[in-house]
Write a structure and sequence with these properties.
The strands form three sheets. Strands 1-2-3-4-5 form a five-stranded parallel β-sheet. Strands 9-10-11-12 form a four-stranded mixed β-sheet. Strands 7-6-8 form a three-stranded mixed β-sheet, with no helix packed on it. It is globular, with a radius of gyration of 23 Å. It folds into two domains: about 35-215, TIM Barrel (Alpha-Beta Barrel), CATH 3.20.20.140; about 230-325, no CATH class. Helix 1 packs parallel to helix 3 (about 50-65), helix 9 (about 170-190) packs across helix 10 (about 200-205) and helix 10 crosses helix 12. Helix 13 (about 305-315) links the parallel strand 11 and strand 12. About 45% of the residues lie in helices and about 15% in strands. The termini are far apart. The chain has helices at about 1-30, 35, 50-65, 75-85, 95-100, 115-125, 135-140, 145-150, 170-190, 200-205, 210-215, 250-255, 305-315, and strands at about 40-45, 70-75, 105-110, 130, 155-160, 230-235, 260-265, 270-275, 275, 280-285, 295, 325. By secondary structure, it is of the alpha/beta class. Keywords: Hydrolase, Membrane, Signal, Transmembrane, Transmembrane helix. InterPro entries: Amidohydro-rel, Metal-dep_hydrolase_composite, Metal_Hydrolase, MTA/SAH_deaminase. Pfam families: Amidohydro_1 (PF01979).
């Protein structure tokens, strides 16, 4: 019996090594291919079907490969209860992951609904990124403490979750739902309404730069900055659903939909670009003649060039291949 157990243990260890090696082989084959648009990460489905050895080996392998880990964390109350009973911790998944030093700044935690204040602090101190999925949360999971996470310094982005939990798979819809669900949670938890519980500007950051940070790609995408890739979504501000226009940040969340999105160039991560009018300046995009670089303009002199560029794009006569943003 002892020899059988030892053999079983050795076979398990060998299979674990072979499986991890296969992940490394896939990483070496596919990571940074397609002009750098394909990134390979390691994935843990959830803690309920993962041993501590699998978790720690995945952590170490991700560190070795300098890549990220995606994992569903603290989705449902049963998950926390099971971990309390089987792993000997006083709360749940995040507490146990912190205990085995799995929480790292390259970890993207999906959902993270059922966490307490102490666990939120653990996420913040470790630099863990959180993907907030409002549609899935309302459908089956619960209300994540997003306001508290942001206040603690956690990088929170937006996600759609998988098709069985969502069906729509629209990041534009998730922005709108995020603005509603978190205001509703505020009423439920405090008994008072607060329309500023999760401001439109914050949600826009969650959908753009925080999304880039969450996938460890913020040095290249996620915002319109000099040297970054020109990943752009053009929104039509003249459609009937966008009228009247009072607050650009709010209108992108509440009135925007898939029908107002005109074009999406260099599709890496959704980045929303809009025309903002004021008495002092016009923010616009001025395209170079080759249409491979983008300049940011804050004066009236490039207004015509901007509108002409957008006109050419709408006629599909101008295309943006992988581009970078340059100075004036």
């Amino acid at each position: 019996m002892v020899r059988v157990c030892q053999l079983h243990g050795l076979l398990g260890l060998l299979m674990s090594v072979l499986r991890m090696q296969s992940q490394k082989d896939l990483f070496m084959k596919h990571h940074n291919t397609a002009d750098g648009r394909i990134k390979v990460w390691l994935g843990i489905r959830q803690i309920m079907n993962s041993t501590d050895r699998l978790l720690t080996e995945t952590r170490d392998t991700a560190k070795e490969l300098e890549t990220g880990i995606h994992m569903h964390i603290a989705e449902i109350p049963y998950e926390n209860q099971l971990i309390i009973e089987t792993r000997g911790v006083d709360n749940g998944t995040v507490t146990h992951l912190e205990k085995i030093k799995f929480l790292q700044n390259h970890l993207l935690a999906a959902h993270t609904v059922w966490v307490n204040d102490k666990e939120v602090d653990c996420l913040a101190k470790a630099g863990v990124k959180v993907s907030h999925c409002p549609a899935a949360a309302m459908r089956m999971l619960g209300f994540a403490p997003i306001k508290e996470m942001l206040r603690a310094g956690v990088c929170v982005s937006l996600g759609t979750d998988g098709a069985p939990s969502n069906n729509r798979m629209s990041i534009v819809d998730e922005m709108y739902l995020a603005s509603l669900i978190n205001k509703g949670r505020e009423v439920f938890s405090t008994g008072t309404t607060d329309p500023t519980a999760l401001p439109a500007e914050t949600i826009l950051r969650m959908a753009t730069i925080n999304g880039a940070k969450s996938i460890l790609w913020d040095k290249e995408i996620g915002s319109l900055e000099v040297g970054k890739k020109a990943d752009i979504v053009v929104i039509n501000p003249s459609s009937w659903s966008m009228m009247p226009i009072h607050d650009w940040y709010a209108i992108i969340l509440t009135d925007n939909n898939k029908h107002t999105v005109e074009r999406h160039y260099y599709p890496v991560i959704h980045l929303l670009v809009f025309m903002y009018y004021s008495a002092i300046c016009i923010w616009c995009l001025a395209f170079s003649k080759s249409c491979t670089n983008i300049r940011l303009s804050f004066t009236y002199r490039d207004v015509w060039a901007s509108f002409r560029a957008l006109q050419l794009i709408s006629q599909d006569t101008c295309h943006l291949s992988p581009a970078t943003i340059s100075t004036m």
